[in-house]
Amino acid sequence: MRNALINIGLLLASSLLFLGSLELVLHLSGIVSVGPHPPLIFRTSANPTISYELIPNLEQKAYRSIVQTNALGFRSREIDPSRPLTAVIGDSITFGYGVENDETLAARLEARMPEMQFLNAGVPGYQLGQERAVYKEKIAELDPQAIILVFFPNDMDEKTGWLDEDGVLRAEGDDPSDRPALRCNPPEEGILSKIPGKCFLDRTSAIYVALKKFTSMRASNETLREDQEESRENPDQDSITEEQLAAYAAMLHTFAGEIGDGIEKYFVLWPDRELHARSRPKIRALAEQEGFTVIDLYDTFGNEAKTLAWDTVHPHPETLEKAAEVIAPHLQ
To answer: For the residues 146-169, what does the mean pLDDT come to?
Structure first.
């Protein structure tokens, strides 16, 4: 009995030492972030329509990549006035969430067409109203030869986000007092939800957070596959409403009228997990009506464009490279 107790004690001590060492390594290496750590790459804009923007002259780790911005606050190199410019406008898809500066859509296009410079004017969370305001305030004066407007289906939600005091992007209508730093956000299902003190662990334990992220990633990927299959089986089921289409059409009409004469306009329809068989032809038609050349990437990817495994929404570098391959011939 004495030997058994000693062995059990040694096993428990070894296990605690191993877990403690692993916890320390995860904390010190920064592989896993514990607690709310918003990407400190945004600042509040002086223009309330823009709401928030990227910090100029930045080099900062965010979204598992290094984000570098130029003096104008765009994720591109400094503008060369001697080279023709194409501005690529959009949200986090254009920005390049989760990929490096040289892997973004604008960078991939410039690698294929080095005689032209491509300005990455994408910012996470932007909607058409913000993109239009950025064009008027920052891009028009650069005298672009062409613009590429990258449309993602969630752009139909025209709510303008804002930046809270913690540097967290918040949705329109969020309660400012509901701060993520004070929120408990452990899993609600599975074995991790049964562990005592899960709120404390969620804020302090890198091991717990790593396990939470792993289980969440697996569940998200399974949900992605199910949603893709359901959309293929029921293509007429569409989350985009007629009211959203009408509102977006009015905003796009205004934006198109503000783009200078002689500037080529391209509208890239970026696919999500739905086929949008009902709304997509209407979106294409309204963009063509406003003088845009439409490049529909559903024709290339369907609703199965490869995404980041840990994210399931934003495009994988392979997808961005393939998209640039499809878009470049239209520009040439």
So the answer is: 89
pLDDT single digits (tens) 223-252: 889 999 999 999 889 999 999 999 999 999
Percentages of the chain per state (helix, strand, coil), in multiples of 5: 45, 15, 40
DSSP symbols for 179-226? -GGG-----SSSGGGGSTTHHHHHHH-HHHHHHHHHHHHHHHHHHHHH
Q: How far apart (Å, rounded) are the C-alpha atoms in residues 88 and 85?
A: 10
DSSP label of 55: P
Among 6, 110, 62, smallest CA distance to 320 is for: 110
Residue pair 209/34 in contact (Cβ under 8 Å)? The answer is yes
Contact 291, 263 (CB under 8 A): no
Locate 308 and state its tokens.
């980041």
What pTM does this model have? 0.86
Contact present, 95 and 124 (Cβ < 8 Å): yes
The whole-number average pLDDT for the span 170-181 is 71
Per DSSP, the chain holds a count of helices (H) and strands (E) of 10, 11
Nearest to 186 by CA among 178, 171, 197: 197
Mean pLDDT of 69-81: 95
Tens digits of residue pLDDT in 52-63: 999 999 999 999
Distance of alpha carbon 279 from alpha carbon 274, whole angstroms? 11
> Distance between CA atoms of 241 and 196, rounded to whole angstroms?
43
